Amino acid sequence: MNVLQISPDCFKVMEMPLVSGRGFTERDNQAAPRVVVINETAARTYFKGENPLGLRLGITAEQSQQLEVVGVLRDAKYNSVRDQTPPTMYLPHLQGPPATVFHVRTAADPATAMAMGAIREAVRQIDPELPLLDVATQAEQIDKNLQQQRVFAQAYTMFGALAMLIASIGLFGLMSYSVARRTNEIGIRMALGARGQDVLTLVMGESMMLVLIGVAMGVLTALAAGRLITALLFGIPATDAPTILGAVTLMLLVSAIAGYLPARRASRVNPLVALHYE
């Protein structure tokens, strides 16, 4: 279980809502009964659907009756945004040793030099001897935790774009070769009355049929291998329908462009030239 020691106004600063009960106040000090706030996961894990307010628990088995639950807080993540929320208990700092980490909410962008300077000045006025060793915004902390995943995502995006480019070039080459081989056939069709639009539709239909078969096989493979890549994803499931639909739409669009150029060239073939084509 995560154990966090916080000040009375921590939940307000971090905008973390209480599900039930109350938060801490200045009266929760050394002279008052020891209290604790737990998150929803801890309530489900240790109280099995029972209302935990007023019940008692402890940090260790020997201290299981020392802390009275006075509130239940909505789940929040700390160490990793990718992992499941662990059971967490919050203790008032007035009932324990002084805290060494504090959070500040600013009206301006906290990453600006002005905001950082104001924070340092406020701390200096309270205690000039207190050093600030590591000042960072919440966004910077999250970016730091996701840095490795972001590098992997960029690499996957690059390889995916490269694969799509190669597939498009291959489709363009295949359709160009097919049109070149069927030049005589196209000339005969046009000599017998086929219009350029008919030829364009014929060639595009054949190219898109190949694409649809490939996309169908790719989607089935992606769905089958979804469980293998779940650990690499964050924020979306492996079978996220909008994501798969977006990828399919993009592939169809790129493939249509790659197949349209040879099809347009075929639709503009001169029948007399095509009939004499070797």
Report on this model:
By secondary structure, the protein is an alpha/beta fold. The chain is built from 9 helices and 6 strands; from the N terminus they run βαββαβββααααααα. The chain has 2 domains: 2-103, no CATH class; 146-275, no CATH class. 50% of the residues lie in helices and 10% in strands. Strands 1, 2, 3, 4, 5 and 6 form a 6-stranded mixed beta sheet that branches. The protein is elongated and about 105 Å long.
The coarse overall form would be elongated
**Biggest β-sheet strands, sense, barrel:** 6 strands, mixed
Count of DSSP strands: 6
Helix content: 40-55%
- Count, helices: 9
* Radius of gyration (Å): 32 Å
- Give the overall pLDDT as a whole number: 80
Q: What is the domain tally?
A: 2
What oligomeric state is this?
single chain
Unreliable segments of 5+ consecutive residues: none
Name the helix and strand elements from N-terminus to C-terminus, one letter apiece. EHEEHEEEHHHHHHH
The secondary-structure class comes to alpha/beta
Percentage beta strand = 5-15%
How far do the termini sit from each other? 79 Å
